[in-house]
């Protein structure tokens, strides 16, 4: 039975009045599983107006009460963890274990939002001048917006609205139309946690809805995660309309392997980090740079990756699931073909892979290239598929030069047993998130997700202290009180209140 996806506008779940209908399909067989009536312009306007009205009262709710909403919410998310993961796996194609990880990383951010009172504390200096004190308050902005991608339909929305709302803002969430049922369930649980009407809105739709949100004068801040082209569009359009914007875009993450590293650990980590989640994550390790004699490990790496078999979400033997759409599959196949035509050595070719009984699904088998060079399309493009490109470097300096020449700076890792090499790498590398013997260095929520260069447009990053700064303004007060007023204030005044 095909489900009908609902919007959440002004405290009500509604089907929507839009004439444009979007079909949600199962990536494993491309059969319809849900339908969306894309939001109309009037519905988007209603959502923003409701959020604006709710802000007037929500910002006055004591910070401890806002934190209690988040405490109830994280409790409900934990109770419904496996249910959420099942919904997520069925609409994205992710394996159940991968889907559970998606949900759990989002829960960790909600747990961090429960600590919002200490995160919003201001600063005070007494006697900045004679008898003058200065202190600051952290205050919310107003209506904030989140535009989220298909690849993490639980984690990335939970990066955004819990912290924004805990800070005293209201929020309009526009998730990917390719997997909308997980965000809908997140919102249902948020309502159950006791969030007041209007604090959170959920809008489903296409570019029409996005453009309204980007340009609307009542929207104060925009958070986005997605492709490079759309990220640049969101950043430029949002800032052109004088909004605060954080836009997380593309990536090309490198792993540098030194010859003194633990070979088996390197191989084990590279398998999951390169083809896990079908490579559909912005922190995937898609390039492995082998330094010196480490290149002799590539045949063993190929053999290990060849053992990974894609499969259905509930197949416990499956290493990963299908790509999200036929278009995504076609793009990856085209890039693999270009890599072969450009002269890279294709050690594993996943273009013809299929799962028995689900041949119409968006399957790509694990793919490995060797002798990839910087001028090849498979190196320059973010493939977003289960494809690993292997490169060679004679020295650590040469490897650093390769990584720093990339226009992206989301994540990188080095595997080595040498502390000096690790120190040199972490210091000289021009990438925002660095792993040392850690394949995917995504920080926990009390830090921030700190992509650099073409991987991020904006100033303040997601979650952690930076997100609190993004979703708030600082008000600074300078106060002077005159001691001569103490006697007047202390004296009885029988006329007070009579005039």
TrEMBL record:
An example of a Pfam family matching this protein is Aldedh
Question: What EC number(s) is this enzyme filed under?
Answer: 1.2.1.27
**Domain annotation Aldehyde dehydrogenase: ranges:** 16-477
Q: Which InterPro entries match?
A: Ald_DH/histidinol_DH, Ald_DH_C, Ald_DH_CS_CYS, Ald_DH_N, Aldehyde_DH_dom, MeMal-semiAld_DH
Q: Which UniProt keywords apply?
A: NAD, Oxidoreductase
Which PROSITE patterns does the record cross-reference, listed alphabetically? ALDEHYDE_DEHYDR_CYS (PS00070)
Q: Does the keyword Cell division apply?
A: no
Please give the NCBIfam families that the UniProt record associates with this protein: MMSDH
**According to its UniProt record, which protein family does this protein belong to?**
Belongs to the aldehyde dehydrogenase family.
Q: What is this protein called?
A: methylmalonate-semialdehyde dehydrogenase (CoA acylating)
Q: Name its species.
A: Shewanella surugensis
